[in-house]
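Page 47, continued from p. 46.
Same chain as before, 350 aa.
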Amino acid sequence: MVFLVSVAWLKCRERGSRWLQGPRMREWWVQVGLLAVPLLAAYLHIPPPQLSPALHSWKSSGKFFTYKGLRIFYQDSVGVVGSPEIVVLLHGFPTSSYDWYKIWEGLTLRFHRVIALDFLGFGFSDKPRPHHYSIFEQASIVEALLRHLGLQNRRINLLSHDYGDTVAQELLYRFKQNRSGRLTIKSLCLSNGGIFPETHRPLLLQKLLKDGGVLSPILTRLMNFFVFSRGLTPVFGPYTRPSESELWDMWAGIRNNDGNLVIDSLLQYINQRKKFRRRWVGALASVTIPIHFIYGPLDPVNPYPEFLELYRKTLPRSTVSILDDHISHYPQLEDPMGFLNAYMGFINSF
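Result:
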């Protein structure tokens, strides 16, 4: 498509203004247009990639429940027999519950139930459009899932990352308000989330899509694997970047149910973080349950040392695990063993 447009532009320069008058030139432009239209149409309707065997297995082993007519995908594994401990995992943007697959088995060796979901608009869950996606709704979906599983009266350990950190903050706020039917949170572990708007550094593509206005629908349709991978790879450390097959798994999760077309709507969570900072940061600052933060210090989205200094100042009672210097924004994928050890150290400390 780009090649055809470039050729046309060069021919225009060669022939000058005569193209407006010459019937041959006008005929040539019509031919280019007739060829370009179906090519563009085909490009915008490229089918999503096939699921890899590993991703297909993840989907097959999961289940769905319905929230207000929308299908939500989740995983629920039974681990240690006789243990009362339950952990619920909240994933980040723009990926899915599959982010946890590298530490999943390790968690089942410590917890009786290990539960994760794909938030609405992510992974294998429904991705309605148009739709007003919000952190509040995602928190309500987590609560609905636990009611569906009959766990609404159990004490829950929350383990979250990135976007999931903000959902956890809203759940914590509701827990602190003692609202009936809300989650009873036993502990909270956050990781590499932009919980402070003032230290959060969204990627350029996120800024464009978040505030693109009428351009956003065009940009989301033009997004492809190349654009996605080039945009996501820099948030990983230089020695821990995902393989091409891992990137394809992430992209397949996004493209499922045309998820690329709702990314601009999902990104409004960045604006919501600013608007509700007092509510969500306040919930953390006054926390009385055990709280921990696992941090990949090379994270360009939540940069060191600004983020960590503000975190320690705001939450002096929280403990922190700082992973190796080369670990970045996706610590559970980049250093699964280090991440798991840090989390187990926290869980076993109380």
